[in-house]
């Protein structure tokens, strides 16, 4: 997994920074609420606007990248993130930040879905190794994001936004320097390809399951800073521990479990454990030590589920991987967008523990969806290594050095 080309490492590095944007605002949500006079619900919309636009834009990213190429798509995505992260840092109202986070989400969509296809197409060691590398970048980014957000947020809530813009600029330079020109033009993808892809029973089953799973994921990530009632730096450390656990299990534990038990059984078990974890948080929402332990433990389950779901999607169909990746990501990000929007409203109406109950129920629904569609996804436990050298060239602009 670690013997990769410079191009793959450049994309992986930029992916780390892109995924930092997901958890970056976590430690500064209370500070933004206090400094800008925003309600808890308004602050949580920073996640919703970002994830909703990311999900919607994902439906069209494969169409864009097939026409202008992977490298240009990655660079446009990075440029948008740089601009909107900087604008968010310079804003003086929560409404403006919510809007700029939406623009940030557009850039994120262009980058993330293309980065996954690029890494899968160019990485050494087969599809599963490439996905583990991608999930490692995701886990590291999600871990470092809250830590950086906490450190810079301790100075000012503006710091994390400006810091992301600077780091993304470094990633931009890396892509420009290390990602070569494609050997051949990519085959154009129709603008409705991702919509048609969702007709595939396996992809639709996994996408809907991921939608409900992501609802639980982002209840834990986005809402937890409020009942914890900690400072920015302390929140950063808590979610750094969460992200490290996620990264470790996604890279090292997920492959061991899937080889031994198969992907479907692992998904059922990890989702059930995550649901129990969220239920414990709901029961003891006033106990800060319990919340901290459950957040970190939840990261262990999330890391496994992330990797296994992504592997399953990449191996579930014979669709072009950029199309499958875009369609799946579009559906799952909608779940992530809905969770913060509901969390603030439900907490205000039914108490601090209510969002965790809702998250636990959503993850259980994911299990039910997988069980209903188990025939459609029965083949995900077989080992598929379908990426040919020719396909890798089409999917990426990576050089072979």
UniProtKB/TrEMBL annotation:
InterPro entries given in the database record: MFS (IPR011701), MFS_dom (IPR020846), MFS_trans_sf (IPR036259), Tet-R_TetA/multi-R_MdtG-like (IPR001958), YfmO-like (IPR053200)
UniProt key word Cytoplasm: no
Topology term for the membrane: Multi-pass membrane protein
Subcellular location: Cell membrane
Pfam families tied to this protein: MFS_1
Keyword NADP: no
Domain Major facilitator superfamily (MFS) profile residue range list: 7-377
Gene3D superfamilies on file: MFS general substrate transporter like domains
Transmembrane portions of the chain: 7-29, 41-61, 73-90, 102-124, 131-155, 161-180, 201-223, 235-254, 266-283, 289-309, 330-350, 356-373
Keyword line: Membrane, Transmembrane, Transmembrane helix
Record-given protein name: MFS transporter
